[in-house]
Automatic annotation (TrEMBL), chains A, B, C, D, E, F:
UniProt-listed InterPro entries: Epimerase_deHydtase, NAD(P)-bd_dom_sf
Protein name: NAD(P)-dependent oxidoreductase
Keywords linked to the UniProt accession: NAD, Oxidoreductase
Protein family according to the UniProt entry: Belongs to the NAD(P)-dependent epimerase/dehydratase family.
Domain NAD-dependent epimerase/dehydratase: from-to ranges: 8-166
Gene3D superfamilies attached to this UniProt entry: NAD(P)-binding Rossmann-like Domain
Superkingdom of source: Bacteria
Pfam families: Epimerase
Amino acid sequence: MTKPFKRILFTGAAGNLGRRLRDHLHQFADIVRLSDAVDFGPAREGEEIVIADLAKREDVFKMCEGVDAILHFGGVSTEQPFEPIMNANILGTVNLYEAVHKLGIKRVVFASSNHTIGMYPTTTQLDASMPVRADGYYGLSKVWGEALSRFYWDRFGIETVCLRIGYCFPEPTTHRQANTWLSLDDLVQLLHRSLVVPCVGHTIAFGVSDNPGLWWDNRQARFLGYAPKDSSARFPEPLQGPVDYASNEDITLKHQGGQFLINGPKYPD
Amino acid sequence: MTKPFKRILFTGAAGNLGRRLRDHLHQFADIVRLSDAVDFGPAREGEEIVIADLAKREDVFKMCEGVDAILHFGGVSTEQPFEPIMNANILGTVNLYEAVHKLGIKRVVFASSNHTIGMYPTTTQLDASMPVRADGYYGLSKVWGEALSRFYWDRFGIETVCLRIGYCFPEPTTHRQANTWLSLDDLVQLLHRSLVVPCVGHTIAFGVSDNPGLWWDNRQARFLGYAPKDSSARFPEPLQGPVDYASNEDITLKHQGGQFLINGPKYPD
Amino acid sequence: MTKPFKRILFTGAAGNLGRRLRDHLHQFADIVRLSDAVDFGPAREGEEIVIADLAKREDVFKMCEGVDAILHFGGVSTEQPFEPIMNANILGTVNLYEAVHKLGIKRVVFASSNHTIGMYPTTTQLDASMPVRADGYYGLSKVWGEALSRFYWDRFGIETVCLRIGYCFPEPTTHRQANTWLSLDDLVQLLHRSLVVPCVGHTIAFGVSDNPGLWWDNRQARFLGYAPKDSSARFPEPLQGPVDYASNEDITLKHQGGQFLINGPKYPD
Amino acid sequence: MTKPFKRILFTGAAGNLGRRLRDHLHQFADIVRLSDAVDFGPAREGEEIVIADLAKREDVFKMCEGVDAILHFGGVSTEQPFEPIMNANILGTVNLYEAVHKLGIKRVVFASSNHTIGMYPTTTQLDASMPVRADGYYGLSKVWGEALSRFYWDRFGIETVCLRIGYCFPEPTTHRQANTWLSLDDLVQLLHRSLVVPCVGHTIAFGVSDNPGLWWDNRQARFLGYAPKDSSARFPEPLQGPVDYASNEDITLKHQGGQFLINGPKYPD
Amino acid sequence: MTKPFKRILFTGAAGNLGRRLRDHLHQFADIVRLSDAVDFGPAREGEEIVIADLAKREDVFKMCEGVDAILHFGGVSTEQPFEPIMNANILGTVNLYEAVHKLGIKRVVFASSNHTIGMYPTTTQLDASMPVRADGYYGLSKVWGEALSRFYWDRFGIETVCLRIGYCFPEPTTHRQANTWLSLDDLVQLLHRSLVVPCVGHTIAFGVSDNPGLWWDNRQARFLGYAPKDSSARFPEPLQGPVDYASNEDITLKHQGGQFLINGPKYPD
Amino acid sequence: MTKPFKRILFTGAAGNLGRRLRDHLHQFADIVRLSDAVDFGPAREGEEIVIADLAKREDVFKMCEGVDAILHFGGVSTEQPFEPIMNANILGTVNLYEAVHKLGIKRVVFASSNHTIGMYPTTTQLDASMPVRADGYYGLSKVWGEALSRFYWDRFGIETVCLRIGYCFPEPTTHRQANTWLSLDDLVQLLHRSLVVPCVGHTIAFGVSDNPGLWWDNRQARFLGYAPKDSSARFPEPLQGPVDYASNEDITLKHQGGQFLINGPKYPD
């Protein structure tokens, strides 16, 4: 069967999502180029591997050379001190889009995050047009990536689908994780649609399965035709046990960003 | 199995919904305290019974003493002359929230009504942010309860889920009833979610099953994770028979409140 | 010169606004009927006086007999315990609208209040379509009046202009008072427009002069043609003196309702 | 079984949809009157046939005489030079509504078109309240029909459901066709609901099945109770094959109107 | 002084606005070409005159030849039977835009009308994004012109400013006329801005002075920099005299279109 | 007279706005601390000078020590290669807010820019809730500052007023400059209001005078009470001279960001 692309690039291949997605990427292209900042073993069949530091312009250009489309999952993916986030996620995306632009690449799928909107209360229904409210340096760096890619669309016509990915691990165990859960299969479907649908412009989509209690409305990205097949409803009810309303004071329960709120910049001691 | 609460209070136990819900409340708490203004027989296992006149402050305080959460279904539930509605539904909710506040109770589920918005045309799609348009004294008293509970949240942090309950009887027989139908199972689910979801703040949710032709959009309350399992589509089509467009002039067909429009304050003779 | 009406009724004539408006009402009608619950001296030329308890149906009917339009400023106008507010403002408006309806009166100007929305933050711009957020029993009773008059419009075609009056005293001395100030002349203009403009339906308008820093947008009521001539900018700057950001924690500064927030229902001792 | 109506009129009976719908119309009425500008053979049982030129006032009056409701599918249904469109679709609808009005007919179902909004980008989610953006003379003539029928509702109380029909052919073969596909069964259901639901006023509904990637939100018409049973997801994936981002420059891919954009008025040679 | 253009075309020169504007057009161009369907006397200095029937394609092409911009005020400007409106306003605008397109003209100022939205209640605040609700054939023909010019912008990049002109006569004498009044000077300013502001795309602006009680919000067209200098507040108060609420039943008072509502298609006798 | 503060910090003192504002800052505080990365001469009376590199954490902490409020105008203020912008505007604001947070400073006025929204068309009316669309690295760095300060408000209660400053030079000479002009006096007023109004939370305000043709609506920040006294209407009309519609293709005319669009990242050669 003919594949959609000849060669795609997946960055962040050594990360959690990179490792889980690796075997699913072959359906998209004859050659899957995998990249990360650290060595992660040898290429398998149909793969190419490029070790690249996103903060280094020349590394990034080399990494992007000759690809048809990019799935950009690379960079820091947890709350960290600012310097590494700045290097990998801010300078890194600047380098990436400069390469994309100069090399004539036409579409990027950017792994953004729900932490761009993590400070919204858990009682608020969001859609992609609402102002960002990041919950720490990590979330802010994803705000940066979304704004930067918007600029490259508005100014140069380079298309990006920004996926605000939820909790993408095999099994949710808390209320928040169940609410924001994204199954691997649904993520793969979302990547597929983001790559093949014609004319996506600059789109922000929430990467989330069809869970009960969703905070996020994918209305603006409905044209992608993403139709999640999974739901966290199939997991044991994470709201079991005695209800303790006192916990309502916990900021990780009150805000969509959850635990990230206390991993970021701290109150002074 | 551990239950969510030690003791909950259900008011209005002798009413239509009270009687139908009675056997379903045990899943929520070790002890279900039932209350009404009139005697409704003896307590069963796991129950406590308190007879209380909502218009009497001391009755209400006694009724609320020692409970973890309240399902407030008490008061007048049909269109009536103003005095009884004022006593039970206006003064009654003032007494209730004063008790809730003074006794340190943290959450109420309030049985509001679609009659808060009964004057909207049947061609209008509503959500919880739209201005109320009550269809009579009863609907107005529910507007009062919603506004009062909003105040207690804004000012004192007491949480309330206001359920604008539709037609909650076993079988709908008219177009309007089918459109606004709420199955008992769906109501139980909605009560469950309203009680156990952390951080509900002040929420208005429409209590309605997954019927065709819904007038109401529960978007703002989606975080509750309420997922109706029933639909009035399974009942015999209530739009059968010859269509008579002349009936379009009937105000009970043109407005969402239906029959309540002609049960309330009347045109002068 | 011909006056707009033969006879209008002004309720609440003994109150602050009643006393200040008394000499300005003659432009509206040949006969100004003044009413209050308490004696306030003899009628002057062109006046009629009716002492009436709003909670008494027969008083209210007598008070309304034979008038062309009503300016309803009567009832409790400060934060109070619930019982007097219920009698004058809740039962009182029910009686009023029943009389209006039965007697064939076609338009009411209702003195509502900014305390219907007093719990909104002072950083929020409001318009008349936004959900109410009252700041105490008084504000809630005005929510009641707005909802009740809406019903009488939707159901029976009786027109009401609800004026959410701001700070209507001669001279503002705080930031909040300057922001919400309404001059007497502007109030008179607003009453005039509310009475004479054809087809007002049910309208909510903010009664406020053209002050700097307005929280309220009168867009939906612009058709009234109300064009405030005064502004609190002419008063000494109420933001003088050293800035103390610590006061930002003061709930009367953070919410539009100001001082009313601490006059209403209290935290338990 | 009793049918909803005694006699309905279906115009455009010789067209694509007319021929496919013909056998499905009997469920709506005892007598189905079929009309077109050209001869299309003899009447079958339960049918009446009236040949009528929509541009001729007397033809139209004769065609409408004695019917209970009208399904107006007649007129030009493809992009054409302006003159035939003006005669059939503009003058034709003026004649139709004059007849409807004079003859006391109370409801019309009008076959409008997605080409009323064909100039919107394919990345935009639409609902019925958004301004029209037609993609040629044909689409503009449907804008005319929607505006004309709105007038007849606002001014004379004649009800119309405007169906913005998508791609209604047996099998979609392109991305756009799959996205906008309407199955025949879903169309029949939509006609049924449009005819029998009480109080439809003037409603614009998108005639589309439950396809992935929908551009159109039927929220405002949800009260019709239309629940599509089909989805284009069952057809072979129309996004197969190698992705060619260069095609993103194709205006028929970038706009919802697709091929119609290049069938209409042309750039000068 | 250099003028903005070498040659502009003004159609409808023999009409009310044409005659009043005639002496004001010279500021826009060295040569003002005036056109109408009927003879209106000889050209003055700096003028050219072309008699043209808008319904005739060749007339329209001749009329448009060699102009830099068009002020299209021609066609029928009152409620009339449909045929003349169709010829002049529907076929006429089709011919005009075909000429504009083929001849390479880049901008049109189109005299639309408030009768495109005349069925809105007088209590409703409108802006340009709200759906049209015409009040008769004339208003519908202006809806047509707005939609047609939108198409020519979306598809071919031809710019149009549609002016929904209010009551443009020397002196308003009714409430509605005062509310919708446009002074000649303000109209001239609006024409100037519509012609000279760079990049207007397709814009709908309300042609109205700075009157009290405006129903229309020009927010979306604010970029034009139109700043009305006149107000109907300077005329004698048109709301004088005794108020008669019974007149509220008059449809010409309840709807923005006023008198046009009863000049258009009629109820059957 | 008592001044609002004891000591305020103004960063960017050697820049264009810094030099023009310098003499106006004394009204805000007894001591004005001025800071920049480069030497700009000796302190005058009532001033303190701190030379600080925003990219150096310790510099920034020293600069902020002991101040009551900060006017942050420092950093790069023109389109530049990314590295200097990253250091001064991204790392610089991170350092600043960390210092603010650790040192207990409660309010910042942040000089943001209209280049955060420079890619919007000049025909679009904006308000502060609309998604950002930056026009280059500089604009993106201001998006960063707005998002970072939002986080510090949401998470730690530190207040910031972000001023999206327009064209703040003595005299506008182009259409865009006239449209976005901010007079020095209006800027001073805006700084004053931003400093002294209680409870500003996180606010985005457009820094612009009362010019004709404004693209920006300050509705959400109206509570600041900013009332511009100047208007670019007093300058010679910048739209003089012959109109050349061909220039409509110029991207600096089509987008709000103007010249910045071609100073930023370029198309590949």
